[in-house]
Amino acid sequence: MEKEKVERASSMAYYTEKVETSVRKVLFTTIVVVGLAGALLLLYFARYTRHHQEIFRSEMARELDAEGLSGALVLGNTLGLYRGILHAVSQELADHGPEERDALVERWAQSLKPNLRFYYVRPSDGKVMGSAFPWGQDGRKERWYSQAVERHSLITLSSLRDPVSGDFYVFMATPVYHNNQFLGVTALAVSSASFCQLLSGQCPCRLGQLGVLDGDGYVVAWSGQHHDLVGSQLLDGNSFSDLLVIPHGYGGKWELHLFEVPGWKWRVAVVVDPAAVEAKEREIVLTSLAVGSSTWLLLALFSFSVFTLYFFWQRKQLYFLAAHDFLTGLPNRYSLEMELHGFIASLSGPGSPRSGMLLFLDLDQFKLINDTMGHTAGDRALRTVVERMCRVLPRKRSLARLGGDEFAVLLEDVDVAEAETLAAQLREAVCSSPLLVQGRPFPLGLSVGITAVTEKDTPLQVLARADEALYLAKAEGGNRTVYLPPERREALREGEDWLSRLQDALSHGHFILLYQPMVNLHTGQLCCCEALLRLKTKDGRMLLPHQFLPYAERYGLLPRIDRYVVVRALEYLLDHPGNRVFVNLSSHSIGDRDFIGFVKEQLEAKKLDPTRLGFEISEQAVVRNPIKAKEWLKGLRRVGCLLAIDDFGAGHSSFSWLVELLNDNVLDVIKIAGLFIKDLDTQPAMRALVQAIVTLSRAAHKETVAEWVEREEVLEIVRELGVDWAQGYWFSPPLFQCSQKNLGR
Length: 745
Hints:
Alpha-Beta Plaits; 21% strand
């Protein structure tokens, strides 16, 4: 049980490790995908950000050009309009006499209000006529007057502050002449506010502020809140720069993009705040970062959501694998233990079942399918057997697979008779017809161990008892049912003690060899004998092989027993120089290269002729892996030992593999199964089969042996068929030594 618990724990650890490895791989993949996606998104949104920054700069440049050129055009048209008005008024004044000029000036001053101020200065007394003039009484003292008279043409003069309103004015002045007679100077005064209102109404600047600079670089007008710049000179009149940077605020600066007014030396300044531009670019970056981060976050959430779903799905798969067999989908031993635990707990409660039974099932000869047809075909065959058993089981009776070809059924509220009936039905379902595997029939057997489940038991005790019942069924020959009641706990302890008993027998020589003679039917003389293994108990009884070899196989002791038998047989040959001995070899030693070396060393150490020692190999042991077995037998044959096939015909093989071994000169003797020999006098079909085997052996020049010869009638038929040797109780039972005088007949 401890071994099974360790194996189950190892299986659970294996599946847990597989699931954890898978989860780690998926988590690593998820992290890599999210990381790569983040990197790709970073590259994409970096490119996206640069692209939008370029678009913003391009749009800003286009808007800058559009607003600057539009402002310059509007300003140029307005200045041209003012110049036209001034020329028209001057011409009209020149065409009228002095008496009419005063009325005309007054009329023009009234008509141009409130946006423009109109003035006329008489040269005789310097009187300023027209709109209110807050700068003085003598207009001849004004710069615009003197410059107009001096230049004899239209002039513009800016940055004159009104002492009353505080506003700045731009003066456009021109002299008035009639027949080369100087009549005075007319002037239009345009306030800075008018220019600002004009520019703001005609071309509102979305970039910030607009300014107007005259030909001398003075600020004529300034939109926005910074009117304190009006009247200040920002640019040298001789400068032709298109960009001007001026300080602003505390450590700030403005960029003035200058656009020349067509036909004038004036400029329109489009003001750009670099800090605002940088803030806009940062806004683009932050917006792009926010969008990219949100996209990456959504991708990460989606990826880790998928990983979480995969993790829980894998956990569900792990729980399923922990409780079910992968091949058949049946509950496994762990599931059975949990079900047993719950059932035992329910036995002590009110309304509990009256009893329960646990059945352990083992398929006899199923390993032959795996060995001959391969494990893939064996898996398909196992599923077919499971379908057969499930059709027999009543509903709510679940079949569990314990491992290999072992199964279990927990029955509730049934007694021993009902459990044995169900076991018989299961055996009928499995054994009623051969199992077809790739067109080849394989008869199967089913061994069943039954034990009762009581409230005093633990799950491990019930499992151990059912396991022991199953081994008792197999030890009795298999394909039968054995019930082991809870009262026979000493039988369980005895079964669990087999390991120490067998190890003690190997260490202290409790294994005994008996020898049964083989008689040459042509001469009637003893030709050799077969060594038969027995186990001597403490009370002196001799146990037959089927009573202890299943436990030896269970605990992996068969290879040691094979070597023990070889040593004891060689000792017998030393004491009996005229004898030859054949010993039976288990399938666990076939294919073991060390065993061949062991036999060779023992023969050389005892200086015995190798031909005096022979080995009997079972047909099934060879058929399980014919190629490997044939090569191994050739190696043993090279040592010089004799080889015989034991119980030929009792298995499920054909003559083809035997012919192959005979052609390779591997075999020396063919022992015909006693199943065909014991009733030769009553079964003609068996006689024909034996005749075929003898014919085949003679063609290959090999000896044949008839086993189980127990009656004279059978002996005569065997001799008539041409069999070379015979063995059985007609001649002698197994004895401690073989000799001619011990032959009874």
